[in-house]
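Incident log, structure service

09:12 report received: a user says their structure output differs between two submissions of the same chain.
09:20 pulled the input from the user's history:
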Amino acid sequence: MSSFHRKRQIYLLSEGGRHFFHSQWAGGVILLFCSILTLILANLPWTSEWYNHFWHNELSIQIGSFDLTASFEKWINDGLMAIFFFSVGLEIKREMIAGQLASIRQATLPLIGAIGGMIAPALIYAIFNAGGPTEAGWGIPMATDIAFALGVLSLLGNRVPLSLKIFLTALAIVDDLGAILVIAFFYTSDIDWNIFLMIACVMGLLIVLNRMKVFSMKYYLIPSIALWLLFLSSGIHATIAGVIIALTIPTRPRFSKSYFMHKTHSIYKHLYYYDEPGVELLANEPQHEALEDLRKIARNSISPSQRLEYALHSTVTFFIMPLFALANAGVVIDFARFGEVFTAQAIGIICGLVIGKPLGIFGLCWLGIKLKISVLPKMVTWAQFLSVACVGGIGFTMSIFINNLAFSDPALISNGKIAILMASLLAGVVSYFMVSVAGKRRGAETKMDRFVVQPAPDSEELI
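09:34 re-ran on a clean worker, output below:
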C-alpha cells in the first residue's frame, strides 16, 4: 500500500470518527453498546462473578480525619450522576431563558406533553401495583432517555420534521425536570433538618456569588463540593445537589454582545495598523497582545453556564452515561425462570413506558391543541406526532436510576432493570417502525401534491 493511500485511509478514519462523535445519535449508540456488553458480562459463566464483584469494590477518600468510603457503584450513582444532573440543570436553565421553554407559546406544547407523559405511565403502573410491595416504583416509567430518543430520530434522518425533533428535545428536558422533582420529593429518606439548615446556608452563598456577578468558576467549586457532601448526609439524594448548583451558575456573560462587537472591531483595526507587508505570521508584539485580548474577550462573552454545558457534554455523553450503564444495566437473566419476571412490577413498567408514555403525551397534547392552548408544529401530521410520542417510551438511564432508589430488595431491583431494558427496546422498535411509516406516508402525500391540477384562473384575472 502506497503512503498516499495509507494517509488517505487515516484521514477518512479520522473524519469518520469526528463525524460520529459530533452526531446526535453517537451517545445513544455507545449507551446501547455498553448495555449489551454489560448484559453479556453479567450472564457469561466465566465473567459474571468478576463483574458483580468489581462494582462492589470500595474506594476511599481520606483528608485528615475526614473519610468517605463507598463502592464503585455508589460513587457512580451518587457522585458521577450528580455531574450528569448538573449538566441537565444547565440545559434546563438555558432552555427556560433562551430556548424552547423561553416563552409561554413555545413551552406550552412540550410542557403539556411532558405532564401527560408522566401522569399516564404512573397511573398505569399504579393500576397493576397499588397496595403491593412494589407500589413505590410508580416513578420508574415516567422518565424519557433523551440520548436514546434523539438517537432513534437521528437514524431516521429527514423523515422526521425538524420541528418534531425540537419538540421532543424540549419535552425530554421538561420530563427530566419532572423526574428530578419526583426524586427530590418522593424518593428521599428521613431528612436531617440540621444538615438541611446548613444546605440552605451554602445555597445562599452560591446565590450571593451569582448576584455579585462572580464569573470565575473557581469561587463556586468549594461551596459546590460542600453542598454535595451535605446532600449526601442529609437524606435527600446527592444528585439533587447537581441541579441546585446548576441553577446558581451565571447565565449572563461578563461582556455584553454590543461590547464584544465594539472591542473586536477595535482589535481588528489594531491588527491591521501593525500589519507588516510580506510577513504571514502575526509575530510582532502589538499584534500578539491584540490576539490575547481577543481571546479573553471572546471567552468572557460566553456565559459561564454555556461554557460549562459545552465542556461537560462530551464527558457526560461518552463517559458518565456509559459508565452508569456498565455499572447498573448488568442483570443475571435466568432463561429457565424467565416467565417469572413478568410480575405486576414488570408489567406496570413495560405498559407504563410502551403504552402510557405515548398515550399521555399524545392525548394531553391533542386536548391542548383542540382547546387552542397550544398549536401543532408546522408541516407535521397527527400520525408523525403520535410516532414521535412513542419515542418518549424509551426510559433507560433515568428509569434505572429511579428503580435503584425505589427498591431495596435486590430481586426487585433486578426484575425492574430487566423490565426497563425490555420496555425501552420494545418502545425503540415500535417508534422506529411508526416514524418510518409516518415519514413514508408524508413523503407520498407530498409527491401527490405535485400532480394536483390547479384550477384555471378566471378570465378577469388574466386581464
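09:41 both user submissions now match this output. Likely a transient worker issue. Closing.
09:42 reviewer note: The mean pLDDT is 82. The CA atoms of residues 326 and 428 lie 20 Å apart.
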